[in-house]
Specification:
Number of domains: 2
Number of strands: 10
CATH class of the largest domain: Alpha Beta
Distance between the termini: 21 Å
Oligomer: single chain
Strand order of the largest sheet: 1-2-3-4-5
Amino acid sequence: MKRLIKILLCCITILLVCGSFLSCNQKEAAIKQDIEQLNDQCPIVLGSFGAITKVEYEDGTVTFTYLVNEKETLTDIGKFQMYKPLLKELSMTSLASSNLASMETISNDDVNLRYKMLGNKSKAMVVIDISNQELRDFMANIDGKPHAMDHKLLDLNIQLVNTNLPQKIDKGLLITQIFQQDNNVVYKLSVDEEDLGNDVEIIRQVKDQVKSDIAGSLQSEDDVVLTRFEKLLKKLQYGLIYRYCGNHSGHTVDINFSPDEISNILSNSEY
């Protein structure tokens, strides 16, 4: 079940370290030094998502190169070429959500950003360029309401992931859609009832065990992607619903996780 989360959060990790290289306005020489120090730490492993393999600074642009684990995230990087505007908006929203002060610092230092994402399987690459002016324009239009950027971040990620669905995640199991419903993120799953050998209603009889198995898969001490997703849900006070839909019967079975349960899972992962 971890793979369900990973495909939703494959892009939230893009800016994890972006705010770490500048804490105040700096001259170009200082920026170069910070980038060199950050590059010395590469590869920076981002859990199941993959890793940052290189960080460079040249002609006013900081470039992050990522190697994306396409198998684990069920992602085809080549398909992202069609959605570069969405990726750009997602990248800026992610930075604003995680560290608005760092975003302001970057824009004040006249720094441009470039993200290169290389698929480890397809070898395809998508490049996202964000100019300093685009950063400034984005900041000028930020909604000041509480958690506005967090809500936008979730919305954009769901949009992006749905462009890559349906996807097979296990034998007889497809994820067909991700959406929001009543302060929940819902994963809609199509169950091949012939493969299951029964009506999907049989899952209802073992709901407690299925829920326990999912909860176990959501607990991770070193998966950056998973932890950030859980923290985002906690900030928004959102729950999770896994909705199993029989492909023949049309019956559905929901496995629900309340916001409190998500918070408890996150707490157990951190200790």
